[in-house]
What we know:
- This protein is an alpha/beta fold.
- It has helices spanning 2-16, 29-42, 59-72, 82-85, 94-113, 155-165, 200-204, 206-211, and strands spanning 21-24, 49-52, 76-79, 117-119, 136-139, 144-147.
- It has 8 helices and 6 strands; from the N terminus they run H-E-H-E-H-E-H-H-E-E-E-H-H-H.
Amino acid sequence: xxxxxxxxxxxxxxxxxxxxxxxxxxxxxxxxxxxxxxxxxxxxxxxxxxxxxxxxxxxxxxxxxxxxxxxxxxxxxxxxxxxxxxxxxxxxxxxxxxxxxxxxxxxxxxxxxxxxxxxxxxxxxxxxxxxxxxxxxxxxxxxxxxxxxxxxxxxxxxxxxxxxxxxxxxxxxxxxxxxxxxxxxxxxxxxxxxxxxxxxxxxxxxxxxxxxxxx
Length: 215
């Protein structure tokens, strides 16, 4: 399982070069696992790390992001839509909110830095909208390739990997959160579904958000 992920990562970075590819990191368990897999291959994370900052994430996520950036020597780039933050009504218009605070700043970062590819932590089993993904997937606006090295991982595989390699993770997971997003749209839940802690309305519009450039 790890071998396939490392092969995908190596192929992507060798194909595009370390200056033309970045990795998306939210501070969650999946994207942190991807960062660690890159470290497994190269001994470090030799490419830019882009973090989409909506300004309404959990304080624990911000603290974890800042700590790991220092400990792992990450080349962190924070993507934020400062203009939208002045007028947006958080979580009221969820599709608009996600587009302005997540999709748009990501698109701008890709274009601004000239990245030809972006590594993400998308998994097949995480959500219905992601089940048709492939390891290398083309995107437009701007044109680039999405690379998904842990598509084949299940939630249990993520935690097995974290335990095996002693990968650090945000302490919110110890409180019962299984999937962590922005504070207004994330709540503790008891469902068997991994993303049950995410806002149901937002989950319903996930297909549309992905069409607009979301993960």
